[in-house]
Design goal:
Elements lengths: L23 H23 L5 H12 L3 E2 H8 L3 H13 L3 E5 L7 E5 L1 H25 L4 H12 L3 H9 L9
Length: about 180
């Protein structure tokens, strides 16, 4: 593709090339993969009047019951204000409970309710089906490469690396 626009068209009127200074192939594959990965869950969440922020909070509280609000804020990299509205709704609707700490009663710990656990499992099963189908299509010989690629893409923040370590996410699959 040439760097000069066709006659009577400005540079801004010409599409960016798929490959060139930037290779848009993987970027667009990520856009569309993420859209599909979240679409099924979004549909289920909408039945409750929830969005992706609700999903993330439910996911991590279920994966680490008893986590503090501060730990959740650090992991999700969001503000207290962003968390507050969504968390309040999850508590009011009976998906999460907030309990005082055992050692420090001022501390607030987050726990899923049975209702919150079931919704999280339902959302996770939906997304796992899509992942399993994609992994099956790529073949088992590629699963370690895919896992390593995703690990490398998401490891910049200390809170994420700590999460990976605590949950054995960085480890190879055990056979």
């Amino acid at each position: 593709m040439t760097d000069t626009p066709p006659q009577n068209r400005t540079v801004e009127q010409v599409p960016l090339p798929t490959t060139g200074d930037v290779d848009f192939r993987l970027i667009e594959l990520f856009f569309f993969a993420y859209r599909e990965f979240t679409a099924d869950a979004d549909e289920l969440l909408s039945r409750y009047g929830f969005g992706r922020a609700h999903h993330r909070i439910l996911h991590f509280v279920n994966r680490n019951p008893g986590m503090t609000i501060a730990e959740l804020l650090e992991l999700l990299q969001i503000t207290k204000q962003s968390l507050s509205r969504v968390l309040r709704q999850l508590i009011e609707d009976g998906f999460i409970v907030l309990m005082p700490g055992d050692d420090d009663r001022r501390q607030r710990l987050l726990y899923p309710t049975p209702k919150g656990r079931e919704l999280t499992l339902e959302l996770s099963r939906i997304q796992a089906r899509r992942i399993d189908a994609a992994m099956a299509a790529t073949g088992p010989e590629h699963s370690d490469s895919i896992r390593l690629f995703l690990l490398e893409m998401g490891k910049d923040r200390a809170a994420t690396r700590d999460w990976y370590a605590r949950k054995d996410i960085a480890q190879k699959e055990r056979t």
